[in-house]
Amino acid sequence: MNLLTRAKHSIEEIAGLFRQTSQARMAFNSRKRQTLPPPRAARVEVAGMGMIRIVDADSGQLLAMRQSYAEALGVAKALERGDQLPEAA
């Protein structure tokens, strides 16, 4: 009888794992379908001492400002890849 109880417990545990696997698969598929923001052409402009602007190349809209040129280039490249705008450090 003890063997039957353990077998029943193991089967219930496996059924629970199958449910978790199914939920994880559904969550993955829903994240996979999310659209990424379109890539943007960005231009880096020096606006003064320690003021570097990242500007949308198409509309001229100011997207971000950074204090170093290297940081601004990183943000511009991220935007051109289609990534979200990184927060200022």
Provide a concise account of the structure shown.
This protein is α+β, with helices and mostly antiparallel strands. Helices cover 49% and strands 20% of the residues. The protein contains two helices and three strands.
Describe the structure.
With 89 residues, this protein is α+β, with helices and mostly antiparallel strands. It has 2 domains: 1-34; 42-81, no CATH class. The chain is 49% helix and 20% strand. Strands 1-2-3 form a 3-stranded antiparallel β-sheet, covered by helices on one side. Strand 1 (42-48) and strand 2 (51-56) form a beta hairpin.
Cα-to-Cα separation, first versus last residue: 64 Å
Q: Give the averaged pLDDT, no decimals.
A: 86
Q: Give the helix/strand class.
A: alpha+beta
Based on CA atoms alone, the radius of gyration comes out at: 25 Å
Give the helix proportion (percent range): 40-55%
Q: Give the total of domains.
A: 2
- What is the number of helical segments per DSSP (H or I, 4+ residues)? 2
* Largest sheet features: 3 strands, antiparallel
Order of helices and strands: HEEEH
Strand content: 15-25%
Shape: rod-shaped
Strands, count: 3
Low-confidence stretches: none
Strand order of the largest sheet: 1-2-3
